[in-house]
Write a structure and sequence with these properties.
It contains 13 helices and 31 strands. It is α+β, with helices and mostly antiparallel strands and about 550 residues long. It has 4 domains: about 90 residues, eRF1 domain 2 (Nucleotidyltransferase, domain 5, 2-Layer Sandwich); about 180 residues, no CATH class; about 120 residues, no CATH class; about 80 residues, 3-Layer(aba) Sandwich (Hypothetical Protein Ychn, Chain: A), CATH 3.40.1260.20. Strands 4, 5, 6, 13, 14 and 19 form a 6-stranded antiparallel sheet that branches. The radius of gyration is 30 Å and the shape is globular. It starts with a strand and ends in a 5-residue tail after the last strand.
Amino acid sequence: MKKEIIINSTLNEERIAITEDGKLAELFIELPDKERSIGNIYLGKVTRIVQGINAAFIDIGLKQDAFLHFSDVDESMENLITDEEDEKQQTGKYKKGKSNKKPSKESFVKTDNTAIALRKPKALKETYTGKGIVFQTKKLGKIQINLEPKQTVLVQIVREAYSSKGVKVTTKIGIPGRYTVLMPFEKAIGISRKITSFQERKRLRYLARKVLPKGYGCIIRTAAMFKNDAELLNDWKSLLEIWKEIEEKVRKTDSPGLLYQDLQIATSVIRDLFTPDVKKVVVDSKKLYKEILTYLKSNSPHLVNKVDIYNGKVPVFDQFGVEKELESTYKRKVYLPSGGSIVIDQTEAMVIIDVNSGRSTGEDKHEQNAYLTNIEAAREIARQIRLRDIGGMVLVDMIDLTRSRNRKKLYEEMKKELSRDRAKTMAYPLTQLSILQITRQRINQNIGEKISEECPMCQGTGRITSKAVVSNALERWLKNFRTNSREFRLVLHVHPHIATYLAEGTISRLSRMMIKYFVKVKLQQSDHMRIDDFRFYSVRNQKDITQDY
């Protein structure tokens, strides 16, 4: 697979496209008013604890309090091979020793009398009666959380704010580098499952134990595979220096605020996604080009030759065919090669996708046509979910299939396509109503939320009040006005869309109302008014009387 990273930078935004075999696969956008905050570390203060939802709200200096769930599990550790797993792979069972030692009941530590982090919750015995917040989990049983209002805690953003919800944070601090992620409050050393060589895992783990201070852990990324010791040690050293700076800031301040800001979007994409399988990186900004080269020279010098500066007259996204593909990202309806289509709708709770069939070729081929259209739709849906960065629940209304074999093949195809996604995804078999359910890890705002705003006319519903309904409301107001007033001259302000409707016809709708209610109305248009709104002004008193009647 030919993989490329294309970076476009302008005064007001940065766009990064990742293409696979020339086709757009992922898109990252950063706008001045919607800067990326994932990975930022804050000093926070517990404002309130809500036992009913197993969560606390943390003041981190932003407009809205951050959400901290009690479980606070470090999700990145789920895709790692730990010490115990390696021992089990080698011997067939866990070795006795420290790996089987029962965990401490402490939930947080203090450095220089400053509470700087909440440690990972530990399962408690049923008989444990210590103080604190206790809640039940399926995996660990009872969990003890030592959290109190006004307590100072170090947190890291793991999910952007979206809709009306604030950012989600974790106390599992992880500082990412090119090859490793430093975990100051985790003793475990995890290694990516993509590093399959046992000897290589052993070497990497030995190096980690050698360089990391006691009580520190880390995640060793796939990019670290077969790298020389000097490169890896340099990465750990730089991360430890960052952590020391954070600790120093914590000691000097006691008010909520930012302690560490992750790299800008372009550099962070290079750090996390510029893997050996990427053929080249193309940048159209000299400033960004220099920043990327500076970062790579100190972290991955062997990749410098893959970075090119683009100086063409045609915009870089047009040159690589990305701009044209981006158009489908903004559209509600996306067409399929066979003539069918998918329609994507966002609701408050989930995303709904409807699959529509293309040209019909007869009843005898209905099952085959439905199956082929569904397969095309599954591929495009998986691509659009990844491209638009859709998170949460997704319900797909597939075309009905009668054969169980076809339904199973469709489900397997969707799972295969979703497996390319870096975010955690889960697909479930088709229901009796041919609904395919998908869940996807929500981390960032989806592209639609980043590049669009709620419509001031329809308030985000996608529909507006019909002209006829507004006209009827006007007539009811006039009837009530004539019943309770002796005035005969008014000025009516409406949106141009409604004004055109009222003025239509040989004898306009407004004229018929004036004749019926024996009142003279002067019509005025206002672009600033909502379509379903109107304002009546008294000519005699020179004031708005809409609310009076």
